[in-house]
Amino acid sequence: MSFLPGFGRPQPSSAEKIANAEVEMDMIGEMMARLNQSCVKKCIPSEYREGDLNKGESVCLDRCVGKFFDVQMKVSEKMQGDAALRQGQMGQ
Fold first, then answer.
1. What is the pLDDT of residue 30?
2. Cα dist. 8→11, 17, 55 in Å?
3. 3-state secondary structure of 77
4. What span, in angstroms and rounded, lies between the C-alpha atoms of 40 and 42?
5. What is the DSSP letter of 5?
6. Cβ atoms 79, 58 nearer than 8 A
7. Residue pair 34/28 in contact by the 8 Å Cβ criterion
8. What percent of the chain has pLDDT over 70?
9. Is residue 8 left, alpha or beta, with left meaning phi > 0 and alpha meaning psi from -120 to 50?
10. Mean of the pLDDT values across residues 53-72?
C-alpha cells in the first residue's frame, strides 16, 4: 500500500473516465424518469384544472421527491454494505 497520491493503483484512462461518466448520466436519467413517473402519477390529477400547480400538488410532489431520495439513499447504503461484506468474505 502506497501513501503517495496516484501510486499503488492504476489510474483510469480518459476513455474509461468518459465511459464511466456516460454510465453515470444514464443512471441519473433513468432515476429521474422513475421519479417523474411515480410522483406525477401520484400527485398530479389527469385532468388539469389550472395552468400552475396548486398548493396540495406542490406539497405532494415535494414529499414524494423527498421520500424517493431517502429510499434511494437507504438502498444504496445497503447495497454498498452488502458489497463490502462480500468483498471482505472473499479476501479471507
1. 94
2. 9, 19, 55
3. helix
4. 5
5. T
6. no
7. no
8. 87
9. left
10. 95
